[in-house]
Write a structure and sequence with these properties.
heterodimer, A: 111 residues, mainly beta, six-stranded mixed beta sheet, five-stranded antiparallel beta sheet, B: 112 residues, seven-stranded mixed beta sheet, four-stranded antiparallel beta sheet
Chain lengths: 111, 112
């Protein structure tokens, strides 16, 4: 079945610096890759997504890149702020709408 | 537009007791998911519905877990009897077919 590997598991950056989280997936048929942010006590919140016909997508300080050949995709957060501190999950759609998640990255922004 | 609504937010029960969780998806979303999230881990799919049909329940422990989505709108997930290892956050999500999945706040279950 589909497997999504995410790293690092924890990431600490200074406020204003950039943060990068990387994921790899196993099923070359995967065609949709969302990223979720989860704050304590809340459900995952969709922050950005990318489809396999696009190599990069940007939304203000957040960007996602996709390398289909290598089966890698990454989340980039620039000019990080304290409110970016949360757990981030990558995911991949496998088969018909089966959403498989990575293990999560706990991001801490240090003031 | 209202998001995915789940209830209750928290539930504490003794082992061997039954428990049920309720989910109301976003209006117009025909795909509904139930996920379980253990502490420090990513969500894991339990069951996925397309309208009222369960199209993927391969990860649902069918000896004690059951789910239904009557009329293809809201859904109920039940555990009977609950075990200590069932303590987790149960998340419901919904999407349009091929669209992005949106999650509810989850139900935190503690089995004592």
């Amino acid at each position: 079945g589909e497997n999504v590997e995410q790293h690092p598991s924890t990431l600490s950056v200074q406020e204003g610096d950039s943060a990068v989280i990387k994921c790899t997936y196993s099923d070359s048929a995967s065609n949709y890759f969302p990223w979720y942010k989860q704050e304590l006590g809340k459900g995952p919140q969709l922050i950005i997504d990318i489809r396999s016909n696009v190599g990069e997508k940007k939304d203000q300080r957040i960007a996602v890149t996709l390398n289909k050949t290598a089966k890698h995709f990454s989340l980039h957060i620039t000019e990080t702020q304290p409110e970016d501190s949360a757990v981030y999950f990558c995911a991949a759609i496998w088969g018909a709408q089966k959403l498989v998640f990575g293990q999560g990255t706990r991001l801490t922004i240090n003031p | 537009e209202a998001g995915v609504v789940q209830s209750p937010r928290y539930k504490i029960i003794e082992k061997k007791q039954p428990v049920a969780f309720w989910c109301n998806p976003i209006s117009g979303h025909n795909t509904l998911y139930w996920y379980r999230q253990n502490l420090g881990q990513g969500p894991e799919l339990l069951i996925r519905y397309e309208n009222e049909e369960a199209v993927d329940d391969s990860q649902l422990p069918k000896d004690r877990f059951s789910a239904e989505r009557l009329k293809g709108v809201d859904s109920t997930l039940k555990i009977q009897p609950a075990e200590l290892g069932d303590s987790a956050v149960y998340l419901c999500a919904s999407s349009q077919t091929g669209g992005s999945a949106f999650f509810g706040q989850g139900t935190r279950l503690t089995v004592v």
